[in-house]
């Protein structure tokens, strides 16, 4: 695929400038970039001369668009202008765009790239020259007449001289004594600068009495510190002297620090190309995760990777693709913080679903094993992202860098269009996969081989799926990234009724095939699909059986994830609002029936649950109030709400992290962490619990005689109530619950400026 463009000439009062006008609607859709129309050229000075048509390869066009996008963001707040604006201010005969393009596209798909000539290739110097035209630089004599004070007022400012060259200079001072004239010589004879520039550059100069301006080329300055005003050495061969009327002074936002950053532009562009490859790779492998913007993947690749991989030390660089005045280091750390909270929530919820009979201790142990650095390091390296190849040998396998990157990706997906659903799909494909398999290499029995053939053909019987499961258990096949989790999952498979195995297999294979997965070719593939089906669709968890006869043994409690997921993925989950189709829908409905049949032994719990329901100022989906009341009763039942508490704690961290990430786009990771911790403390949650309707406090005090005011029970109860709202009413209602009750309790970090 190629990008089309026209080479035209823009003639202004400053002379002719050659431009490449890119016309390509695809450029405006690059990840993270929105290309606007040309900027900053005074319309009254502009007309176009028809030029030849160019064809650019797709990689070249992408590179040009990336360079230009970076420059436009670095140069400050100059507003873009549209073609229609230019056309209305120029005579019709000078407005030749319709002759260039028969059907001009909309302004967002038009962009300029300046060329120093029709044949010279685009490079960094060219891009800097482009900046001169973009940012409305002013002539030195026109803007500054107080020459004695120029050394102080303009020290360090950027000077451009388009009539002489395409280089940029740094202003050092003014040579009031004109001693620098002796350095403008031909052979051994001095010459006036008017003669020198007129003969060498074919320039007409008028203000011959003005002193020369002392400058140093940007590339000659490098990383060296600027000399103080007036202290430059005129004999230094790197110091140049220019006539003031040839000097364009760039605006203040085009400062030295920002210009020096541009020296790293080629490296930045390379990494942004890596971003595009990364987005393409992830979108291809995990399409249900949603397209992630380059704005977020910039943090993943350029941010952390440039600092720790290439060692260029860009920690303080202000990225053009994030919030203003936020360094890329802050951006990826913020994403890491968000991803860590999202990861903890999804893993908690899915473990509760996958292992309904597991104890709290076992679930916590499994969670810690899945989110530990070693596991995430392994998962990141298994992704095969293209930009990792360059630095893979420079980072240890145990380096926390890899774990941070996985959390950044999760945070990026979470802020993308598919949100939590995209994150769940991503985890299902990275936590579970054939690459984690460890199975003895032996020939499958004929029975298993035939079963595989039938499954691949789509006509396998339930007994054949059971045969493969039994064989996998016998061989200790591992498909999870955790050996402990894999072992528990095999035990879980043994407990699944034979007639249900095919249903869960189809749930998993639908999710897998959405990523382009081929038909199963091995026992490992079948187990992978079963694992993904149960991981994404398992609809319930059990409450621990109680040894105390006074407490009821509660039936299975439905995790209504499947209910809410049915809206996004009806092909997998079926419809729970009409005729149920598919395995998950029917099983969730049967669980609802069991749960709604439960009659609590304590009327106080029921009264308290109803009091909470009526006091909630949040959107409650129609038909979910009966579920909410039952779940709230469970949340208020001592010694049986631990799993709800575990889920509520994880969701609270996730919800607060998202709210703070969205509300405070410029705060650092440390500030966001302190703010989140200020609202999720046991003291704050306890205070919120005590503000609930009085029947709730009566239930707590009756169950815990002599309870202390600062008891952890109050905070645990609040988290259990939050989990009940989440399971019964969905994430939107639970997020609203957090936003209305918990978020106002956040203590603003006074060490930062909001």
TrEMBL record:
GO terms for molecular function: nucleotide binding; ribonuclease III activity; RNA binding. Coiled coil: none annotated. Pfam families: Dicer_N (PF17895), PAZ (PF02170), Ribonuclease_3 (PF00636). Its cofactor is Mn(2+); Mg(2+). Residues 1-15 form the signal peptide. This is Endoribonuclease Dicer. Keywords: Endonuclease, Hydrolase, Manganese, Nuclease, Nucleotide-binding, Repeat, Signal. Residues 328-418, 589-730 form the RNase III domain. One of its GO terms (biological process) is RNA processing. It comes from the Eukaryota. The keyword Ubl conjugation does not apply. PANTHER family: DICER-RELATED. Residues 126-251 form the PAZ domain.
